[in-house]
Specification:
Distance between the termini: 56 Å
Largest sheet: 6 strands, parallel
Order of helices and strands: EEHHEEHHHHEEHEHEHHEEHEHEH
Number of helices: 13
Structural class: alpha/beta
Strand content: 15-25%
Radius of gyration: 23 Å
Helix content: 40-55%
Shape: elongated
Length: 331
């Protein structure tokens, strides 16, 4: 290290141009974000990342860069969520737990991106799905509840641990009327199932998804189609479960058959049921506490992995919902 005016410099060698680009980000946006969080100056000189700052700053920043190494070393772009998660782990003494995030690669997307949990709570959620026959995941939009469940389901399908993948959700109207939509019943409910198709296309591609849907290996259907069935040898995902009634939730949970597992996801703050109707997800989260074979995971705004603005939006609404009585809030 060289010292000047109380500042020191430290250099981290990078293994390849791809790694340097992944760490720096577009127009070096990731480096600027790291600077704003740590107070350290970061300059990329060829394949060397040069850090300049006080000794305490350099120590913290270099530790942060090392926590992120498994991503940028593979050429995976560093996002703000990745940085925030690593920094939180560093500041709370959970570096070893964070290091295991990089080891848990679930799959590779059609574009070649490695798919893995990106926060510690997401990792706990994935672990719960792998160990339990029934997992409930509650959390705001953008926390990866449905996507991670779909990734794990597709992996288990490829590994022949299950024979079918069943994705379902209630076709509850959010201020719009199904009857006004054109087409038959399937065409009317397809828009409600589109997020599930999107996840499948990311993992399998549109042609492979269409083939498996045609063969019945993957089924995407509204919740009403589940009544009276026994879902054996299947991975079942119930999405948007906050919009199930208590009766619907009880119905679908009791569909679980031999050698199957089920993941139920939902956001308790976005209930579109009529006033006075109890959400089946909220009731199930209370009733099933402590039941053997059941895991209940709660994700928060800190686990949002969409656009950085989504996290701030979720936090803003959470503050509003926690305001004194007199403020309006739809639950």
């Amino acid at each position: 290290m060289a010292e000047a005016a109380g500042l020191q410099t430290f250099s981290i060698p990078l293994p390849s141009p791809e790694a340097a680009l992944a760490l720096a980000g577009e127009a070096e946006s990731s480096l600027r974000h790291l600077e704003s969080l740590t107070g350290t100056l970061l300059v990329l000189r060829g394949l060397d990342l040069v850090l300049q700052g006080r000794a305490s700053q350099l120590e913290r920043t270099s530790a942060l860069v090392e926590l992120l190494r498994p991503l940028w070393q593979e050429g995976q772009a560093i996002t703000r969520v990745d940085v925030q998660t690593a920094l939180k782990a560093l500041d709370t003494g959970r570096e070893h737990e964070h290091a295991r995030l990089s080891d848990q690669v679930l799959a590779r997307s059609q574009s070649g991106k490695l798919l893995r949990p990106r926060t510690l709570k997401q990792k706990a959620y994935v672990d719960a799905m792998e160990r339990h026959d029934l997992t409930l995941a509650l959390g705001p939009a953008g926390t990866g509840k449905t996507f991670l469940a779909t990734v794990l389901a597709v992996r288990m399908l490829h590994e022949r641990k299950v024979e079918r993948l069943i994705l379902t959700r209630p076709a509850v109207e959010a201020g719009e009327r199904l009857g006004f939509l054109p087409g038959d019943l399937q065409q009317k409910v397809d828009p409600y199932l589109r997020p599930l198709y999107d996840a499948l296309h990311t993992l399998l591609g549109s042609e492979r998804t269409a083939t498996l849907l045609e063969k019945g290996v993957i089924e995407v259907a509204p919740l009403a189609y589940m009544r009276g069935r026994t879902l054996a040898d299947a991975f079942v995902i119930l999405d948007e479960a906050q919009n199930t009634t208590a009766g619907q939730m009880r119905m679908v949970l009791t569909r679980l058959g031999e050698n199957s597992r089920m993941v139920v996801t939902g956001d308790p703050t976005q209930v579109d049921l009529p006033p006075g109707v109890t959400s089946g997800l909220a009731e199930a989260a209370q009733v099933l506490q402590g039941v053997e074979g059941v895991a209940i995971c709660t994700l928060t705004a800190a686990d949002v992995v969409r656009h950085p603005l989504v996290q701030r939006l979720v936090q803003a609404y959470a503050r509003r919902d926690g305001a004194p009585s007199g403020s309006s809030s739809r639950r």
